[in-house]
Design goal:
The complex is a heterodimer. Chain A is α+β, with helices and mostly antiparallel strands. Chain A has helices spanning 11-16, 48-64, and strands spanning 19-24, 27-33, 71-83, 91-101, 105-114, 120-132. Chain A contains 2 helices and 6 strands; from the N terminus they run αββαββββ. A 6-stranded antiparallel beta sheet of chain A has the order 1-2-4-5-6-3, with helices on one face. The longest helix of chain A has 17 residues, at 48-64. Chain A is elongated. In chain A, 39% of the residues are buried. Chain B has 3 helices and 6 strands. The longest helix of chain B is centred in the middle third of the chain and has 21 residues, at 49-69. Classes of the chains: A alpha+beta, B alpha+beta. At the A-B interface, α1, α2 and β3 of A face α2, α3 and β3 of B. β3 of chain A pairs antiparallel with β3 (77-89) of chain B.
């Protein structure tokens, strides 16, 4: 496994008050407290665009858990969000799981839930790129 | 149609998070809106690929909603939240991206919006489709 970033220090995570709660191979769980959400949408919920943003962030963290030698997590190519219910929980959890890791493409799914009652707020499918990088020849 | 006054609409996009994402409202017309993401940022945000992608994702949703609001008959209808959002990030953005949203179709229940994001030279970096729930207002005024 390659080294993963200290997510808490990156501009995105600092800006939006998102926390990385748990990571393991092919899995990541983030959370965001309601008071950190300033971009609000219908019925004072998390803005729909921000839901997509959070899902993508979770998938990127998840992607980093699978990078091996000669691989680097690449950019997101595609995301699809189904908005199922307004995200208005005191804390919203964002869980990402990899469904399939190929040589160049990783497909995963993400769920946003109200942490208190487990209500499913949104479901995403995200496709990301794996970048091949040259590794030094062993001496 | 409920097309807002252009300057009033533009002035509504100045929150700290929106500024930080580089959001700049461009124009709004009947069934159409355009919002730009000013890139590059010129600081550490350029080294965090999540930042520009996040800005484009956020703008895609809100520009689509703006187009829907400028399309609906405000006497009878109101948007009721995003139902779905599909985004294809065709290329990594290198400069300012203007995301245009056009309402492609609408019925009693939903509005469908085409999204295209281009750099100033016309290079397409984003393509998308969004659907919004539409609520019919009751004659008494409540939706």
């Amino acid at each position: 496994m390659t080294s993963t970033p200290d997510w808490s220090t990156t501009p995105f995570f600092r800006q939006f008050g998102v926390r990385v709660e748990e990571t393991r191979e092919g899995y990541a769980r983030l959370s965001i407290p309601r008071e950190a959400v300033r971009l609000r949408g219908a019925r004072d919920s998390i803005n729909g665009g921000l839901v997509a943003v959070l899902g993508n962030a979770a998938m990127q963290v998840c992607l980093h858990t699978l990078m091996g030698p000669g691989e680097r997590a690449g950019r997101t190519h595609e995301l699809t969000v189904a908005f199922l219910d307004s995200a208005r929980g005191e804390v919203t959890s964002i869980e990402a799981r990899v469904l399939r890791k190929g040589g160049r493409i990783v497909v995963g799914e993400v769920e946003l839930r109200d942490t208190a009652d487990g209500a499913l707020n949104a479901k995403l499918r995200v496709t990301c790129e794996v970048v091949r990088v040259a590794t030094p020849e062993p001496r | 149609m409920a097309v807002p006054d252009l300057e009033t609409w533009r002035s509504s996009w100045g929150s700290a998070d929106q500024q930080r994402l580089g959001v700049r409202p461009v124009t709004i017309a009947r069934s159409y809106a355009a919002i730009a993401v000013e890139l590059p940022y010129g600081d550490e945000r350029d080294d965090d690929p999540l930042f520009a992608t996040s800005a484009l994702s956020y703008v895609a949703d809100v520009v689509a909603l703006s187009a829907v609001r400028a399309h609906l008959d405000e006497e009878r209808e109101q948007p009721n939240g995003t139902m779905s959002l599909h985004l294809s990030f065709i290329a990594a953005p290198g400069s300012t991206v203007t995301v245009e949203a056009r309402v492609a179709a609408q019925n009693e229940m939903e509005a469908t919006v085409d999204l295209v994001g281009r750099e100033p030279d016309g290079r397409m970096v984003l393509r998308g489709l969004a659907t919004f729930s539409v609520r019919q207002k009751t004659p008494g005024g409540a939706a």
